[in-house]
Amino acid sequence: MAKSKNHTNHNQNYKDHRNGIKKAKFSIFDRSHKMRSKGLERKLRRNNKMSAKKNRSPKEQLAIRMGCLHRQLARALKARAAKKERKGEKSAAAGKKDKKPKPAAKTAAKPSAKPSAKAGKK
Description:
There is one protein chain. By secondary structure, this protein is mainly alpha-helical. The chain has five helices and no strands. 0% of the residues are buried.
């Protein structure tokens, strides 16, 4: 008896194109997408985390460094502004303590003794 056929690619192309051949959404090794770590062994998880942290491209490293610098600068500026505000509040509080408020009733009831010079010239 003759051997039977082992393999054929007949109709496979048609079946593949029925719903269209789509680009893969992401690869496991693609860095731009994160692989789920749920269900992975702890050692493997830790190793993946460390390797992702250490093996970055120069562009990624530079971006991270610049981001850190920007964050540090922002923190420093914010702290400086807060310090100035606190200093301003203290000086304003000290200025208020020096000046004693005058009673409103006395100043309003007191008529001016001298007529103003400008009023007399008219």
